[in-house]
Design goal:
The protein is mainly alpha-helical and 138 residues long. 87% of the residues lie in helices and 0% in strands. It has two domains: 52 residues, no CATH class; 77 residues. The two termini are 29 Å apart.
Length: 138
């Protein structure tokens, strides 16, 4: 492989990494690789997949800021949803008297909200930890 071809492959690799880091649509990226390199779709798709696999840490590092914002938003929403449900069970629910049926119906909804909120919180903490770890390792 000549020095010119080596430089062309490195520049196309850099382009693919950059576009993957910016969350570019995969089909648009493959089409652009086809245009730039003059190859057919299957070869371009294989190249994009190979670069994505080989440089997965670099792609993850470039995607990190957006993932941090989304993870933080999900974390806050999960905590808020869990908090509302816990507040309901602690202070609003009364399982005696004439409002028993209404409180039982609300309890199902708030129970689902509590489980969903806990799931959102746990999932976002896990995801944020992975994003932060990948950003620190690269």
């Amino acid at each position: 492989m000549s020095t010119q071809q080596s430089g062309d492959y490195q520049s196309i690799h850099d382009f693919i990494i950059s576009q993957l880091g910016q969350h570019t649509n995969r089909d648009d990226l493959i089409l652009e690789v086809c245009t730039r390199m003059g190859v057919r779709w299957p070869e371009a798709a294989d190249l994009v997949a190979a670069v994505e696999l080989e440089y997965s840490r670099e792609v993850a590092r470039r995607q990190g800021p957006l993932m941090l914002v989304l993870g933080g938003a999900v974390l806050l929403a999960g905590v808020a949803l869990s908090g509302v449900a816990l507040y309901f069970f602690a202070f609003e629910a009364s399982f005696v008297g004439s409002t028993l049926l209404l409180d039982l119906q609300n309890s199902y909804v708030m129970g689902a909200a509590l489980v969903t909120g806990i799931g959102m919180t746990a999932g976002s903490v896990y995801g944020l930890a992975r994003v932060i770890a990948s950003m620190l390792n690269s």
